[in-house]
Design a protein that fits this description.
Blueprint: H1 3-7, H2 11-29, E1 57-60, H3 62-70, E2 76-81, H4 83-89, H5 93-98, E3 101-103, H6 106-113, E4 122-126, E5 142-147, H7 152-164, E6 170-173, H8 182-188, E7 197-200, H9 203-212, E8 216-220, E9 237-242, H10 250-255, E10 258-260, H11 273-288
Parallel strand pairs: 2-3, 5-6, 5-9, 6-7, 8-9, 8-10
Antiparallel strand pairs: 1-4, 2-4
Helix pairs in contact: 7-8, 7-11
Amino acid sequence: MSKDEKSGHTPKDTHYATLRRAHRDQKRERGELPAKPMGGPKAKTPFKGPQLPPDTVWLYGIHTVKAALDNPERKLIKLKATQNALARLELDDAQMAKLQIEMVSPGDIDKLTGPDAIHQGVLLEARPLPVRKLDSLKDRPLLLVLDQVTDPHNVGAIMRSAVAFDAGAVVTTERHSPTESGVMAKSASGALEMIPYIQITNLADALEELVKLGFQTIGLDSEGPAPLEGTFSGKKIALVLGAEGKGLRQKTRATCDSLARLDMPGAIKSLNVSNAAAISLYAARAYLTR
């Protein structure tokens, strides 16, 4: 009996398995999947990449890099790209002329970003975006404020929702919040270039400043006294969301104008913070445009 017969696999199964492995290997070579782990099932060693200067950020992924290249406020340093990725960026002559471009292999980028980054064969070295002040937001009717949401994947997803519902900015704290990074930008899928990401020193002070600018500050809390849709008032709304598990800090709760809850009739009564942000933004936008 053959090995395939013993395992219950037919020659056809083996053929398709080989094709699937070849397809996965091709995607890894293009940087569309994480690099294949080396060695056996040992504990994974945390990746430690090169130390970046404080005034430099690495952005990767086709959508992320394309959005950064199209953003006039983003100062560019160098673009590393494979031949295939450069073609997918579809740069015009003006963009090509002002860019320093280095042709690389996917493995070259893996060494910089780590084996888990889905870089798609492109890495942009750039400067962080300009710092914005809260008073620059006084004419925007909808803001999102985050109270120590630490996961860059969540913050990136929240940015996408904020852009989708035309929020004026995502405001968060300098401490216990992610700084601008490749991970956050990739999760935002271009949204980092489309909305101000403002990090402030003291959240309670910032909320008080927003009130002076005419915003109603509403903290989302599972134990809020009223549903969110019945809490809105005025013409400018700042929604305040806390980290998963911890929720809003006590001082943040005390500083907000109002606390409100998202009513969920199903068996699950809590949501991922990025999902809660999307629902809250939808409700606020519906109120503001009624």
